[in-house]
Amino acid sequence: MSSVVVYNLVKTYAGGDRRATDGVSLEVADGEFLVLVGPSGCGKTTLLRMVAGLETPDSGTVSIGGRDVTYLPPRQRGLSMVFQSYAIFPHMKVRQNIGFGLTMRKVPRDEFDRRVKRAAELLHLEEYLDRYPAQLSGGQRQRVAVARAIVVDAAVLLMDEPLSNLDALLRLQFRAELKRIVGQLGTTTLYVTHDQAEAMSLGDRVAVMRDGRVAQLGAPLAVYDRPADRFVGGFLGSPPMNFLTARVGGGALAVGDASLQAPDHLSTWEGRDVVVGVRAENIQVATEPAAGWVPARIEVVEPTGAALLLTVRLADEQLKVQAPATFPAAPDARVHLRAEPAALRFYDPESGLALDA
Ligand SMILES: Nc1ncnc2c1ncn2[C@@H]1O[C@H](COP(=O)(O)OP(=O)(O)OP(=O)(O)O)[C@@H](O)[C@H]1O
Ligand SMILES: [Mg+2]
User: Fold this and answer.
1) Which of 228, 255, 290 is the C-terminal boundary of a domain?
2) What distance in angstroms lies between residue 21's CA and the mean position of ligand 2's atoms?
3) What mean pLDDT do residues 174-185 have?
4) Which ligand is nearest the CA of 9, by number?
């Protein structure tokens, strides 16, 4: 068993004016890949460093495999780490870099060779074992750092933005590789990124953090589909979720002159404004009007290759709409929009929290 349980972790740095983590609780199940995602400064690295034992919390606990490790030094926690600055040793060949943790543990020669070979195979580094890091590309060096972390077969793997030094294409390739490797190993993994697409693609579950707290934790698609608040909806997804203000009245939602059917659970909001959230891909667009469709005007047309991303104006609101690549779109053209009622989400305009059905 190597679950990781974090309970109510609070950390304020000396000289810091606010809490870097403000009572974070979460559980990474045995063998699970959990991604911590959130904007810069929200406390991801701080949380990871407390799990690693590199930082001591003001209060709260960290347990690994059912054992309280809150005050144990890093080497007694049975974990392995990859950091953003991957810090491989320039004077050592790839073989010695990958096997560093094994050397430290005085693993016998034949076992060293076997394990380094396996890690190198997993990361497609076999042909580079006798090179020095300076003779590798950035992506290869990053793979060496990951190989070095997995070779020790730790029960828990911690990774802080391990792909951050790669260009966009390499990042995409290595992301898929990493998913394959960690899936194969079945290691309990806590992975930090500020890249929402990376979080969605890698995580069994994602924890979206904001201001030192977990805003929402769940399966990537569940969080994407039902953001618990406006922050999460605006952070996950590209483009972010659209938000429009609508007035509830007589069973309808008014956005400017347009009217949508209001779900029953909004009856308590009669006469007040709510925020409607809807994803770009859940809005249909047509050139001709039809009953129940809402007129809007195209402002910007951006081809993404697979689709068109339209910026449209509806009353006072601007929203992003995903149209088929073949849609005849032009700036200033009038179009008609519709969304499946089931795809609409509703938020409290004051607190930003989801209004549950
Ligand atoms: N050593 C430190 N001393 C003082 N304040 C710190 C220290 N490290 C982090 N902080 C502060 O704690 C907060 C959380 O920082 P942290 O590094 O955990 O954020 P992060 O989510 O990892 O951000 P990023 O995505 O930029 O890496 C920030 O406000 C940061 O300025
Ligand atoms: Mg960080």
Assistant:
1) 228
2) 12
3) 87
4) 1
